[in-house]
Amino acid sequence: MKWDDTSVHILSHTLHYGTGVFEGVRAYKTPKGPAIFRLKEHTNRLFSAADKINIKIPFTKDELNNIQCEILNKNSLDEGYIRPIVYLGNEGLGLRAKDLSVNVAIAAWEWPSYMDPKAKEKGISVIKSSHLQYENPLHSGNKIIGTYFSNTMALHEAIDSGADEAIMLDKNGYISEGSGENIFLVKNNVIYTPTTDHCLNGITRQSVIQMAKDLNISVREQNIKFDDLVQADEAFFTGTAVEITPITSLDGKHINDGKKGQVTNQLQEKFQEIISGKNQDYDNWLTYSK
User: Fold this and answer.
1) Domain end: 54, 77, 109, which one?
2) pLDDT means per 10 residues in the chain (290 residues)?
3) Same-domain pairing of 61 and 165
4) What positions carry a catalytic annotation?
5) Closest to 237 in 3D by CA, of 198, 186, 196
C-alpha cells in the first residue's frame, strides 16, 4: 500500500485506549543484500506482548517475517527501519475490547540514524528525569502502545533542558532505562546493567550482553543506583534506534573524562561487524530479504 493511501478509522479502539502492540526493527546493507537484525526475536516479542493483553494476531510468525522481508524489496531499501503494529478495529467503541477486528500493518522507510551520527563518537548528554518508569512490569517489559506517555514526557523534559535523553528511575529509586533505550555502565572493566524487573529486555540489550561475554567482558545484571552512574568509567545506551551510543554527560557534568570509553568502542566495532554481515559467528542474527 502506498504511504499516502494508508488510513486507520478514527474510532479505532487502539487510537482511543492504546490497546495494541508494536515493534521496531532495523535492516542493514550487507554484501548479500538487505539483512534484518534479529527478525525472529522481534516477531516473537510482538506475539508475546499481544498474548499478554489478550490479542490474537491473525497471521503466523512466518507470514509476518516474510512480509517484513518483502517490504524492503518492494521499496528498494538496502537498509531502513521497519515498524510492525497490531491494532484493534472500530466495530465498537468503549473499554470492552471484545469482538473487534485485529489489524496488522507493517511500514518501512529509510532511516540511517536516529540521533546525530556524530553521537556514536562524541556521545550524548542525559539528565535524571522526574518521570518514573511504570510500576507494572507488564507496561515496562512489553512494547504496548498505550504505555509510552511517561517515556515521551521524560524525553521532552530532557530536550527542553538542553539534553539529548533522559534517565528514568523505577519505583524503588533504581535506574530503569532511557526514554526508549536500555542503559549500561562500565566500572573497572565490568559492565553493569539494570535487571529487567522494570525495563524492557531489549533485543539489542540481549545482543550486547552476549557480545560482551564472547569478548570475555564480565556482565552483571543488578539494581543500579543513580550515584553508580555518576561515578562510572563509561556509560552507553542500547536499542534498535540508537544501536550502541555512548553517554558522556550527565546533568551537565562529564562522565569520567567526557569521552567514549574503550569498552563501549569495542562493543560498537563488534556490533558494526555483525550488522554489516562481516562476522560469520553471528550470521544467525541476520535474516536476508532476498
Assistant:
1) 109
2) 90 95 97 97 97 96 98 95 97 90 96 79 96 76 89 96 96 94 97 94 97 98 96 97 96 96 98 96 96
3) no
4) 143
5) 186
